[in-house]
Each structure stands twice: as C-alpha cells, then as structure tokens.
Design a protein that fits this description.
GPAT/DAPAT, 2 domains, glycerone-phosphate O-acyltransferase activity, about 0% strand, about 140 residues, mainly alpha, transmembrane, glycerol-3-phosphate O-acyltransferase activity, elongated, 4 helices, transmembrane helix
C-alpha cells in the first residue's frame, strides 16, 4: 500500500528544509525499485500472451519474453547513462560557444574576472597560509 503525501506536509516533515529533496529522492527510489520492474514484468507478460495467441514455436515462446525483458533493462540503463552525460555536455555547449567568439563582450569580461579572482585567491593564500600552517614554505 502506497500512501501519497501532500508535498507541503512532506516538506514540513522533511529534514532537508530547502524543498523536501529527501522526499523527492524517496519517490524516485520507489519508482526505480517498484514501478519500473513491475512495468517490465507486465510488458514481458504481454509478450508471453502474444506468443501463445499467435501460436509461436516453443523456441520463440521462451526466447521472446526473455529477450524483451533483457532489452528493456539494458535500454533503461543505457538511456540513464546517456542522459547523465548528455545533460552535462548540453549545459557546457552554450558557455563554450560563447567563450570561442572573439567579439563577445561577456567572454572578455569573464576572462578579466577570472584573472582578478585568481590573483585575489593567490594573494589571500600567500597572506593567510603562513598564519594557519606555520611550517608552510610558499614560493615567491
């Protein structure tokens, strides 16, 4: 028996107070561990029914459901892996394209900010590191 909670109640009872991410993760886990295998079993059962209704030979009655289940599981795994890497690539294409344009003002500003940030961080480390680590030897 699955009890569906109201999202505001779930967020209120959540230990992660930002947006109830632990509740969201629980639902994702529930789907991944219960709903998906149930659907795969249902689809495989449909293939078994089709194989008996169409009076396939015994070899195909055994091979078709097994191959259907394996293809579903493998397809899901491949889809998840491609989605993870594809989203990373998709998110990085726009900034990469903008950084390659020589006339883009935002890329010039970004380079300037990065250089200034690098200088600031280096100066901060050079000033405060000897106070924290007494045996630290910095290169000048």
């Amino acid at each position: 028996l699955i009890i569906f909670y109201n999202q505001t109640e779930a967020v209120r009872g959540s230990s992660v107070k930002v947006a109830g991410r632990d509740v969201l993760a629980t639902w994702k886990l529930l789907v991944a561990l219960v709903v998906t295998p149930t659907l795969y079993g249902f689809y495989t059962f449909i293939v078994v029914l089709i194989s008996f209704k169409c009076k396939w030979i015994l070899k195909w009655k055994v091979f078709a459901p097994i191959s259907t289940f394996c293809i579903l599981v493998t397809g899901s795994y491949v889809t998840i892996r491609l989605y993870e890497s594809g989203i990373d690539i998709y998110k990085s294409i726009h900034p990469l394209f903008l950084s390659l344009l020589p006339w883009a003002k935002s890329s010039k500003k970004l380079r300037t900010v990065r250089e200034q940030l690098s200088t600031d961080i280096t100066n901060l480390i050079n000033e405060s590191a000897p106070q924290i680590y007494h045996d630290l030897m910095l290169k000048e």
